[in-house]
Amino acid sequence: MTTPEQRRQDAVDALAQQTIELPSWAFGNAGTRFKVFPTAGVPRDPFEKISDAAQVHRHTGAAPRVSLHIPWDLVDDADGGMEKLVAHAADEGVAIGTINSNVFQDDDYKLGSLTNADPAVRRKAVQHHLRCLDVMRATGSKDLKIWLPDGTNYPGQDDIRDRQDRLAESLAEIYAGLDPDMRIVLEYKFFEPYFYTMDIPDWGTSLLHCLALGEQAMVVLDTGHHAPGTNIEFIVAQLLRAGRLGAFDFNSRFYGDDDLMAGAADPFQLFRIMNEIVRGDALRPDSGVNFMLDQCHNVEEKVPGQIRSVMNVQEATAKALLVDREALGEAQRSGDVLAANGLLMDAYSTDVRPLLAEVRESRGLPADPYRAFMASGYLDRVRSERVGGTQAGWGA
Amino acid sequence: MTTPEQRRQDAVDALAQQTIELPSWAFGNAGTRFKVFPTAGVPRDPFEKISDAAQVHRHTGAAPRVSLHIPWDLVDDADGGMEKLVAHAADEGVAIGTINSNVFQDDDYKLGSLTNADPAVRRKAVQHHLRCLDVMRATGSKDLKIWLPDGTNYPGQDDIRDRQDRLAESLAEIYAGLDPDMRIVLEYKFFEPYFYTMDIPDWGTSLLHCLALGEQAMVVLDTGHHAPGTNIEFIVAQLLRAGRLGAFDFNSRFYGDDDLMAGAADPFQLFRIMNEIVRGDALRPDSGVNFMLDQCHNVEEKVPGQIRSVMNVQEATAKALLVDREALGEAQRSGDVLAANGLLMDAYSTDVRPLLAEVRESRGLPADPYRAFMASGYLDRVRSERVGGTQAGWGA
Amino acid sequence: MTTPEQRRQDAVDALAQQTIELPSWAFGNAGTRFKVFPTAGVPRDPFEKISDAAQVHRHTGAAPRVSLHIPWDLVDDADGGMEKLVAHAADEGVAIGTINSNVFQDDDYKLGSLTNADPAVRRKAVQHHLRCLDVMRATGSKDLKIWLPDGTNYPGQDDIRDRQDRLAESLAEIYAGLDPDMRIVLEYKFFEPYFYTMDIPDWGTSLLHCLALGEQAMVVLDTGHHAPGTNIEFIVAQLLRAGRLGAFDFNSRFYGDDDLMAGAADPFQLFRIMNEIVRGDALRPDSGVNFMLDQCHNVEEKVPGQIRSVMNVQEATAKALLVDREALGEAQRSGDVLAANGLLMDAYSTDVRPLLAEVRESRGLPADPYRAFMASGYLDRVRSERVGGTQAGWGA
Amino acid sequence: MTTPEQRRQDAVDALAQQTIELPSWAFGNAGTRFKVFPTAGVPRDPFEKISDAAQVHRHTGAAPRVSLHIPWDLVDDADGGMEKLVAHAADEGVAIGTINSNVFQDDDYKLGSLTNADPAVRRKAVQHHLRCLDVMRATGSKDLKIWLPDGTNYPGQDDIRDRQDRLAESLAEIYAGLDPDMRIVLEYKFFEPYFYTMDIPDWGTSLLHCLALGEQAMVVLDTGHHAPGTNIEFIVAQLLRAGRLGAFDFNSRFYGDDDLMAGAADPFQLFRIMNEIVRGDALRPDSGVNFMLDQCHNVEEKVPGQIRSVMNVQEATAKALLVDREALGEAQRSGDVLAANGLLMDAYSTDVRPLLAEVRESRGLPADPYRAFMASGYLDRVRSERVGGTQAGWGA
C-alpha cells in the first residue's frame, strides 16, 4: 500500500525529471487567415527564437529542448550553417529537439506534397524530408516530425486511395533515409488546411502507415487535431498499448485546431491524458514519448504564454501522479462507479501549485516561473533591442 | 474509352446483382429512451419479422437475406428450434444472413460484457457468442457480427487499458470457435450506450483487434457511429485498401446514432460512400463486403421504411456507377479541381429513378417498389391479423 | 479593494444560502434506449422518491426542494391526492418545487404534442398543462417547466413554420392559465427524442416565445442541450442581460444529452457557468434563477450520485465566488490577456473542499456529505425494505 | 390543385428573376493561416475584381450585383473616388451591392473593435462604419453588412457581458447614422477568428441586437457559421417568421467555416434551405432577403468557381420550386411521414439541369454557363494581361 506521503514523494521525483519541448515557431507572430497581429519584441531569426525559448527553460527548468521548423529555421550555410545555431542553443542552455518538415508553404504544394498526383512534386517533397535528415545530423536531432498538411477541398478533386498509395511510397523513401537511431514521428489531423479530406486524418491512418514502415515510425498525437467529442485519453491508452505513441503536440481547443495554450480550454482533459501517461508508465524520460508544445499565441505575449503552458502541463502531471492507483484499481475491480470516479477526482481537485513550487525551489528555480519571468525585465529589453528587421512568423 | 451507354449498361448489370441485407429488428417497434411508440400490425415473433422482411425482397428483388439478433430471434428448441425459422424464411423466399450477438440487455452487463472487470461476466458473454456460432451452424450463417456496447460513463470508472486487454482475450476465445468459413465482423461506435468511453469507439480500434485476431476478422462500418464531421468515405477507402472492410450497417443521422433511413439525412454522403465502393471494386457479390441496413423506424411505417431505404441505397449506387471514371482520373491527374469535382457532381445530379425502374421491370419487379407495396394491402392485412400477443421491440 | 479574506467570507455567506433543486426522477431507474438496468432499493412511488431526495438535503443542507414530473408523480386522488405528498415532503424536511409537464409518453404524442398537426392532440396537450397548473396550486409550486420534446425525424415530415405557429398558440393558452405569481420556464434542446428538427432547439427560439408570452415566461438552460462546442456561459450571460434566465437544469455530457452528474464531464465549464452567475449577481436567492439538477444515474447509485452532483455544483460556485473581480476587471480593461486569464484560473485551481467543509460544519452538517451518507446505512435499509412492487423509472 | 406543368412554369418564372450577389473578395487570392496560394490572372484592384464578377453575370444572367469590402475596395479619392468604380461596374453591366465593413485587419483591433475595452478603439471602429455609410451614399448601396469578428481567446480575457453592452452602444451609434432607406444587416459566427467567445456567436444574439436597434436592422445568415449539426433551415424559417432575415452569405462546409463553393459540401442542405425560402415566400425580388455568396477559392479557379456556385444555388432553388406543396401539406396534416418525406425527396431527386438550361436559353444566355465561360478565353487573357502589380487577396 502506498501512503499519500509516498505518492507525494514519487510525484516530486517524477516532476523533477519531466521535460517539455518547445516549438521555435511559438515565439514568432501567429494568427488566423484573417490577420496576424504583430507583437513588439518578437524574434527576427532562429537565434532570437532560441533565446526566447531559453527564457522558458531558465524559469521553469523543464523545457531544455527546442523544435525547429525547416525551412523556417534554416540558417544560411554561408554563415556557418546550423552549427552556429546549435552552439547558440548550447550557450543559452538548451538543445535542438525535433525537426519539423514544412511542406505547406511552397507554391508547388497547393494540391499536396507527399501525396501530390504529380510525381515531380512528390519527389521535391521527399527531397525536402531527406534534407531535414541532414539538418538532424547537423543538430543532433533524432526525431523527424511529419505533419502532413495534404488533403483536398472538394469531393472528386483527387482519388482518396491513390493518394494513400502515393503517401505510402513517399514515406517509404524517407524512412529508407533514416539513420538507425532516428525516428519518423507521424502526425494526424482532422481538418485544415484542407476541408474535404486530409490524407492522414486520424490515428488509425497514421498507425497503419507506421506499421507498414517499421519500428522507427511512431504516431504523434496533437491534442487539437480531433473531431468534436473525441476521447483523446482513449487514443493515448490505445497507442501506448500498441507501443506506437511517439510524441505529443500539446495545445488546447474549444472548436477547431485553435492552438491555444495547453490546459487553457479543458484542464480536466489534460489531466485525463496525463493520467493515461502515468498509468501506462510513459512519463519516465526513456519511455520514447516526447512531450512537446505546439501552439499559437495570437493575442497573448509569447514567452510567458509558453511558460504558462509548461506550468499547466506540470500541474496536470502532478495531479495524475497523485492518483491513489491501488485504491482506484480496487474500486474499479469491485464495480464501485462513484468511488472510482471519486478517487480520480480527488487527485484532480487537489491544488498542486504548492507542490510544484516546492519542486522548483528545491532545484533552485523560482516558485512561480510566470511571475519571475514577468519581473525579469526581459520583455522590455527585447522590445527595445529588436527594432528593424522582419519579425518571424509563419513564414521564412 | 467507355461511352455513357457502356457505363449505363454496366450500371444496369451491377444493379441487377446488388443485394442488401435487412435487420429483423427493424420490423419491430423502436424508439428512444423517452418512448417506444407502438405501431399496429408489428410482428410478435421472429416468424412474422421474416415475413415482413420478405415483403421488402418481394417488391425490390434486392433484399434476399435477413440478419437475426440473438437472443431476440431465438426460437424455442422445444418447437423444433431454428430449423423451423430457416424453413419459414425459405418459404418466404429469403435466407438467414448475419447473426448479431446481443450483450446489452442482460442485467449482468451493466458495467460491460466482453470487457467486464468480473471474469464470470466475461465468461458468460463469451459463452453467449459461442452459442451464436451454434445458431450460425443451424441457420447457415457465415458472419457473426459483434457490436460491442461496452464502455464507461465516468472518468476513472474503469481502467481503459485493462478493458482493451480483456477485450482482446475475450475476442480470441470467440475467434477460436469459428469454423474455417466463418467470420467475425467487428463494429465500432463513437458513443452510446455509454458516454465517457466506448471500448471500440473507432475504426482504428476495431482494426487493431481484427489484425490481432487473424484473417477471419473484419471491420463493420455503421454509417451512424462516427464523430460529427467524420469523412466516412475516407474510412471506406482506407479499410478497402487494408483488405478489412467486412460489412456495412447503413442508416443515416443528423446528430448522434439517429438510425434514420439510409440516405434520408445526407444522400450526397451515401453517394460518396458508394462511389468509394465502386472505385474499390467492392460492389461485386464476391467482394467480401456485406451491405446491410441497421435502422429504427420510430415514427414511420416499418416495411415501407425498409423499402425506401433499399431504394435509397440503390439510387446512390446507380449514381456511383455512372461516374465517368476515365475522365475523372484524367481531371484528377491534371489537377483540374473544378473539372474533377464537376464530373463527380454530374453523376450525382442525374435522376437515376428511370434507370432503376428499368432494371426492376426487366426482372419482373415493380418499377416503384414503395408504391407497389403500399397498394398491396399487406399493411391492412397484418394490422387486422396481428392482434393480441406482444409486439416485438428492442427486447426478447 | 476586497481582500482574499473578505472574498472568502463573502463566499462562505453565499454558499450557506445556495440551494439546488432535485428531480424526483433521478431516484428512479434510468438508462438508454438499449437498456434500463435495475438497481436494488429504488423507489416504487413518489413518496419513496421524496424520501430519497430528502436524504440528499439531510446530508448537504443545500437541496430543500424536489421537482415533480406529471403524470409520473401524480398520487391517486382517492388516496387523498397530492396533499399527502406535500405533507410527506414536509415531514422529510423538503418542499415540492417545479412541476414538469410530461408530454412525451402518451401514444398520441408520436408526431408532437403542443405542435401536433392534429388540433385534438394539441388540445389534449394543452389540457395536460392546465392540469399541471392545478397540481401547482395543490403543491404550492410556482414554476411550470415545459421541456417540449416535440420535433420531426425527416425533412418534409411536417412544416417547420406551421409548427412554430401552433406552438405559439398552445403556449399562449397555457400562459393564460397562470396565476399572477406563477411562471412558465421554457426549455430548449438541440436534439432527441427527434432527429431532424426539434421545435425548440435553441435559446433563441425559447426566448422568442417567452418574449411573445410576457413577463411570466422565462428560459430554462439545460447544460446538456447544446450543439458540440457551444459556449454555454455566453448564453448564461446573454439571458441574464435580457432578464430572461429562469432556471438551470444541471448535468454533464461528453457527446449528446448524456445526463451525467453535474461537473463530472467538464468541471471547468461548470465553473465558468457559475462565474457568469456570480458576475451577473444571479446567485442570491431572490434572483429569479432556479438551480436544478436534471440527471440520469444509469450505472451509479442514485442518492449518492445526487449528493456528489450537489457537491460539484457547490465547488464550482465556491471557486467562482473566490475570483478577485476587482483585479480581474483591471486586467481586462488593460488588455492583459495572460493576467486576466490567470486571475480566473487562480480561483479555479484552488482546492475549495476545505472551505465547503467549514461551511457545512458551521451549519451542523457533515463535512463530507457523500461519505456521511454512505456510512449512514440508508442504502442497505431501503434495499431490504423495498422489495416487491414496481421500481420507478421513466414511466408512470 | 397545381399540376406539374404549372409548377414547372412557376419555377421557370421565378428562376428567371432570381439574383445572387457576388463578393468582390472571392476574385482575389484566399487561403488558410498556413498559406495563400497565388493564382495567375488574379485581379490587382477593385476594377479588375468587378470585371471578373461581371463575367459571372455575363454567363449566368443571375449575378447583377457585387458586394464590396471596405477598406479593401476603396479607390483613392485623388483618382476620382468611388464614382469611377460605380461607372466601371455600370460599363461591365453590374452594380455595387452591399458594403461590408472590415474591422479585423487593423492592428488596433487585436482585442476587439466595436466591443473593445478601450473607448478610443471603439470610436475608431464606429467611425469606420460611418465612413462605410458614406461609401454607400457614393455607390448607391442600401445595405451595410456587419460581420463582427470580435471575440476572445481565453476564459477571463474580457467580461462577456460588458462586451455585449459596448456592442449595443456601438451599434446604436452606427444605426443612428443610417439614411431612412438603408439597413444594417448583422451577421453572426460560431467561431474564428477568436476561439473562446465570439461577441455575436449565434442568431439569437444577432436578433436581440437587431430588435434593440429597430426596423432597419436585420440578421444575416452565413451558411458556414454554425455549430456542427445545426439545422440551418430551421433558423431560416424562424427568422422569416420573425420578419428579420435580411440576407444570406452562401458557401459550404464540412468542418468549420470552410468557405467552400455553395452546394459543394451538402447539396441537400442547400435544397432544404431554399425550400424554406420558397415556403416562406421570400424568393420574390422584393422580399427583403438578399442572396449573396461569401466564399474562398483556395485551390480552384475563382471566376468559374463563382459560376459553379451560382449554378448550384439555382439548382437548389429549382428543386425547391418543384415541390408539390399541396400534396405535401396534405401528407403532413395527415401524419403520413413517409409520403411527406417522399414528396420532398421527389423534388430533390429531379435533375433540374435541363430546366435551367431552358430558362437560360430563353433569356439568350448559354445553357451551361460554366462551359461557356471556360471556352471564352477570358482566363487566358487575364493571365497574360495581369502581370506585375500586387494580386488582390485578403488585405488592402
From TrEMBL, chains A, B, C, D:
It is an enzyme of class 5 (isomerase). It comes from the Bacteria. Its EC number is 5.3.1.14. GO terms for molecular function: L-rhamnose isomerase activity; manganese ion binding. The keyword Isomerase applies. Keywords: Cytoplasm, Isomerase, Manganese, Metal-binding, Rhamnose metabolism. Pfam families: RhaA (PF06134). GO terms for biological process: L-lyxose metabolic process; rhamnose catabolic process. This is L-rhamnose isomerase. It comes from Pseudokineococcus marinus.
